[in-house]
Design brief:
Blueprint (H helix, E strand, L loop, with lengths): L2 H14 L20 H10 L17 H19 L2 H10 L13
Length: about 110
Amino acid sequence: MADIDCFMYAIRIQESGNNYRAFNSKSTASGAYQFLDSTFHGALRIAGMGNSVYMSKSAWEAPPSVQDAAAHALMSNYFGRWGSWRSVAEAWYGGPGAVSHPGLLDG
């Protein structure tokens, strides 16, 4: 299994217990990766799906393949920017501005 596949699985377990239909009633976070709507739509654009029907939906309304493609695209983008899984995790949980030590610790 590739590093990104392992990372994606870990995020799914942490965020939703691997539940693609999960949603947070207190925010727009939803789906297996608990995407905020704005983050999901941005990730869809990165994944080349900016014209898809899912641009007007929340992540939990998209099939697993679309959620996975969006997460893969965004995580790959983050890894390309900072080059470490630690930094990808920092960006995932706190937003790109939370990346404090790019490349300090590879994981």
